Amino acid sequence: MMEIRSETVEEESPLIGIPDPDIRIVETDDTHGKFSVEPLSRGLGTTLGNSMRRVLMSTIESAAITWVKIDGIQHEYSTIPHITEDVTEFLLNVKAIRFKSNSDQPGRLVLDVKGEGEVCAGDISPSADYEVVNPELHLVTLDSEEARLSVEFNVERGRGYVPATNNSGLPIGALPVDAVFTPVRKVNFEVETIRFGQAIGKERLDLDVWTDGTISPVDAVREAGQSLVGFFFMFANAGKVLEQDPERKPLAIPPEQYNMSLDSLGLSARTLNCLKRDGLNIVGEVLEKGKEELLNIRNFGEKSLEELNEALEARGIVVTAPEEVAEEEATEEEASPDEEGEAKAPGAVDEVEEQTPVAEGVEDEEKPTAES
């Protein structure tokens, strides 16, 4: 019996040496990357693959054109003189222009061409903040020496896909464009069963990522992973509040609001990006900071602060900053009544102080008389 047990232990011992899961870059270039993760427990490959695919396709930030303004054109159903394509076809081509952004601020780009010939994305005047990644993209064809095309493009940063809407805030003559912000064009994953020694049922996840060239596949995977960490952080802290500075007063909000992800507030891409760059991922971390601390964040101004406050109030989260609480308490202490429960007016205090020396003088005059 003892020998049988000994043999059983020897067969199971190789299971102890299974390494932790690790990611490996199989191949990569400017637009495609292949990654491999192994060994994974059974079922975890599909879980990670689906999560990464959804995040890669929807949460990576990039730049796109949101509206254009064409000289002499008031709506998208017009035709441009001496140009082969109509306005609708031109707008469809404009949607495919890809930009590499060096700034979080919206920018304006200008296209001004004349004469016969083909117009490509590379003919757009260069900018220090936005660089055209696909300059060879065809836009329109001018079929006459008298042809002239002057266009203004509005470029913004964002996530996912934003359909064109008739926004009343657009400049006169501006034509809205469907904004395709996501820089990830395609994501594919495969899960394969592998074996480590006597351990069976392990999995390997192979992940393929294609981008438009505005971001490398490695950076896209890294950013998607950081985004998932922020989401899972909520679950890791479920039912408890993060440790706070002992000098700060605790926030009077429930844990579920404290640990709420900033992604769930519906903030604009610019405001959300500013907060995350400063290491703020949940509502509680933002509320721990005062107004001045938030305004000191790079590119985070009064408009961003107002947007943040409106998003918090819309979800019933209204908390006074610690500095404001201290100021209110100090004001209440100054305005509190005296020990007898009556507030003293400044005039009454001055009157008592003026009468006190007179009373002392009277007592000094009466003392010699009593002794004599």
Explained architecture:
- This protein is an alpha+beta fold and 372 residues long.
- The chain folds into 3 domains: 18-60 and 182-213, 2-Layer Sandwich (Gyrase A, domain 2); 63-180, Beta Complex (RNA Polymerase Alpha Subunit, Chain A, domain 2); 237-333, Orthogonal Bundle (DNA polymerase, domain 1), CATH 1.10.150.
- It contains 11 helices and 14 strands.
- The strands form 5 sheets. The chain has a 4-stranded antiparallel sheet.
- Helix 2 packs across helix 4.
- The protein is flat and about 75 Å long.
- The model is unreliable at 1-15, 242-246, 320-326 and 337-372 (pLDDT under 50).
Regions with pLDDT < 50 over 5+ consecutive residues? 1-15, 242-246, 320-326, 337-372
Shape: flat
Which quaternary structure do these chains form?
A: single chain
Biggest sheet details: 4 strands, antiparallel
Helix content: 25-40%
Measured by DSSP, the beta-strand proportion falls in 25-35%
**SSE succession:** HEEHEHEEEEEEEEEEEHHHHHHHH
Mean pLDDT level: 78
Question: What is the CATH T-level topology of the largest domain?
Answer: RNA Polymerase Alpha Subunit, Chain A, domain 2
